[in-house]
Amino acid sequence: MNCSLNAEGIRLCQNVLHEKEPFQRTGEMCAAIYVLSTVTGYVLTSALLLKCPSLLHRRKRETFRSRHISHRGGAGENLENTMAAFRHAVKVGTDMLELDCHLTKDEQVVVSHDSHLKRATGISAYISQLTYAELPPYLCKLDVTFQKECFCEGGEDKRIPLLKDVFEAFPKTPVNIDIKVNNDTLIKKVSELVMQYDREHLTVWGNANNLIVQKCYKENPRIPILFSLKRVLLLVGLFYTGLLPFVPLKEQFLEIPMPSIMTKLKDPARMPRSQRLITWLADTLLMRKALFDHLTARGIQVYVWVLNDEEDFKRAFDLGATGVMTDYPTKLKEFMDKQITKST
Fold first, then answer.
1. Which residues form the GP-PDE domain (predicted)?
2. What is the DSSP string of 220-258?
3. Is 65 strand, coil or helix?
4. Is residue 205 part of a domain?
5. In this structure, is residue 329 part of a structural domain?
6. CA–CA distances in Å: residue 156 to residues 73, 74, 133, 153
7. How deeply is 271 buried, as exposed, middle or buried, from its count of CB atoms within 10 A (0-12, 13-18, 19+)?
8. Residue 154, pLDDT score
């Protein structure tokens, strides 16, 4: 009797299990369909907003647009960051002057790339250790950082200028200011000069250091800011995960290098394999037309630096870059004029 009851119980359990299997399979299928539809909806929405960001974001107001940007005033044609370089670039027809700022001991805002004067003047001292009157002149011959084995020999103008000199000389020319050191006084004084010369609509400032950019924005949110390195990395991460179209951005300018130019600055045969791989990967991730087009549609200008030959000029513009930063303003202007002639 017990044996027959046990056998009957086993059969009942098996029947129940067989009856549950279809329901279990149905539940799993519903879950899979839900996940698939959710992912598909996310991908399609992200793709739509990537192409049409105005559906979610108000386009940033552009007070100027720059295609031709002179790096340090055009460091390949005149001594970098001098008034002679800036005058030449403006005469050529540049849309923007890019320069670097430091603070002297007597709190004067000067235009210079290096904090230490050895490379540019031969004097072993920091700008912050000297008053403006004590600053030495530039050397007659300076290296061009982004051109392999190239030097620029200057004329009579070897003076390190004040930022106010640039503002006074070029009241209608946009200026791109790299705040080179994390100095609250420097940031405050640059902001005061920008306001004094009514240039909030003609200036962009920042640095690769995210803390400096945050301080700039806090000091004067009316002056457009650049993406810091940290924010560039975040931007790339958002782009490749599809989240970028959903995220608001306070920056108005993206300035990024074209990593492939490293192979022109260094002998590729002597570059370690790991460095060549990193250069290739960085170039592949950063130089994306879809990214540039999306940012441009949101009113964020994209500048690629520092390009010094026609091949790189063409690649940057073909990818949708708003502008190109160069050490050779004449060469870039001639290239742009030729492109206009071809299109007509």
1. 66-336
2. -TTS-BBPPHHHHHHHHHHHHHT-GGGS-----EEEEE-
3. coil
4. yes
5. yes
6. 16, 16, 18, 10
7. middle
8. 81
Is 213 inside any structural domain?
yes
Query: Both 202 and 104 in a single domain?
Result: yes
Supply the pTM of this predicted model: 0.89
The pLDDT tens digits for 114-155 are 999 999 999 999 999 999 999 999 999 999 999 988 999 888
Ranges of H-type helices in the chain: 2-51, 83-92, 118-121, 163-169, 184-196, 210-219, 229-241, 262-265, 273-286, 289-297, 310-318, 329-343
Q: Do 119 and 241 sit in the same domain of this protein? A: yes
pLDDT at 18: 53
Mean pLDDT by 10 residues, the chain (344 residues): 50 50 69 81 94 96 96 97 98 98 98 97 97 97 91 90 98 98 98 98 98 98 98 98 97 97 86 91 97 98 97 98 98 96 81
37 and 121 in a common domain: no
Tokens of 304: 């690629």
Angle between helical axes of 329-343 and 83-92 (0-180°, round to 10): 10
User: pLDDT tens across 41-62, in order?
Assistant: 899 999 999 999 999 999 999 9
Q: Could you list the residue range(s) of the whole structural domain that residue 43 is in?
A: 2-51
Q: Count up the domains in the chain and report the number.
A: 2
Q: Do 189 and 248 belong to one domain? A: yes
Residue 62 lies in a domain: no
Contact 227, 218 (CB under 8 A): no
What is the C-alpha separation between 218 and 85, in angstroms, rounded? 32
* Residues 76 and 144: beta-carbon distance below 8 Å: yes
CA atoms within 13 A on the CB side of 272: 3
Q: Which residues fall within 8 angstroms of residue 344, CB to CB, at 6 or more apart?
A: none
